[in-house]
Amino acid sequence: MPDAVDDLVSLLARVALRDRPAFERLYRATCAHLLGVAFRILNNRDRAEEVLQEAFMNVWHSAGGYKPGVAAPMTWLINIVRNKAIDALRSGRAERASTVSLHDDEGEGMDVPDDEALQPQRLLADSLLRVKIDRCMDELNAAQRQALALAYYRGMVHTEIAEALHAPLGTAKAWVRRGLDKLKDCLQAAGVAA
Amino acid sequence: MNYLHPPRLDRLAREYALGTLTGRARRRFERVLRQAPAASQAVAAWQERFSVLAAAVPPMQPREAVWHGLERRLFDSAARADEPAARPLQWLWTLVSGRLWAGALAGALLAVVVLRTQPEWAGLESADRALPESYVGLLLDPAGQPALLANSRRHGRQLTVKVLQPVTVPAGQVAQLWAFPARGAPFPVAPLPPLPGRGASVTLTLPDTSEKLFANVPRLGVTFEATPANPGETLRRDPVLAGHCVKLW
Fold this sequence. Notes:
The complex is a heterodimer.
Chain A: H1 2-16, H2 20-42, H3 45-62, H4 73-90, E1 99-103, E2 109-113, H5 120-130, H6 134-137, H7 142-154, H8 158-164, H9 169-190
Antiparallel strand pairs in A: 1-2
Chain B: H1 6-18, H2 23-35, H3 37-53, H4 64-76, H5 78-82, H6 90-97, H7 101-117, E1 134-140, E2 146-153, E3 158-163, E4 174-180, E5 187-191, E6 201-205, H8 210-214, E7 219-225, E8 241-248
Antiparallel strand pairs in B: 1-2, 1-8, 2-3, 3-6, 4-5, 4-7, 7-8
């Protein structure tokens, strides 16, 4: 979507000039995707929204530092959100839970189960399918794929991955390494990323 | 350990970008990142690869309160909210705004003289003797001595930096110019070209017009970095040179 990318680059350039309407347009265009990223890591809507707000504070102040030639605009934004979400996760402000209570502005609440559609492995599979490297990545075994998915989507470190997958630490590390090696190879082969 | 050995660098970069590099190893690698462009490039490449994995994450619409909170925090009380950002540099600002404010004014006056007598230093196209509308920054060292004089036409994209006293940039590093806006966090302006000796000037091209970059910037600073500041990067360390940025009109 080159047009959409160009739009985001242009909006970021205007935000750097303290253009408030551009800032709101940038927020509206990207907030849902970015909240999704933060939510996968924190598994808590309130915490994810706090992170999203902090991230956009950062965007307002740092948009001048964005360089289109170095990173795609969404990559730059995702990186800010993901780093803040992982910081929040590791500072202990978020709790892992299998269900999350959601409350909208009208006070209605609902529980969203941590169903299969939200599982990291499923997200990984869907993402790989979108860039057509799913077959290439099929060479990884289930544990290797799970380890990679838990690290990226849940922000887990090696010890947590080992615990979640009931594996020795060294094995968990090797699974992540293998997953990353394969991801790089497959993306290169498909010409998707450098 | 040679962190820049390509296979080792790639392993560290990807674990750093993924978030699985933690603790002391992460801090050690952050030091490498500040010094080695190759390390920054390796991390950027992995961040681009990981962005592919975010493609299938289901979007989730934030509640409207998030936007309202942002507006309130950024625009209703911007001055107060941004106050802490200046604290780490307080020693320098105190120095600049107190005892040596007169020095800054003297620098601005010097700039007037410079612009009147040597218009080509500011990249002026006109031989008109009227002083053009310009931004002028006088950067002082920690001892309060004027070190660099920066000036640019208000609507121009060229910034001329005159060396008032020799500035020694550590080998393998660059001098990075930062803007300190009245509201908001410092942002990188541009890396400075290699600085000549006392009395000589260099000119660089700005990423935008001076007016757009400096309209709300009362102060400038220079840090020494292994690599030019990256997109979105906030100030990495206290500047080695800092001073006021003033409008000449």
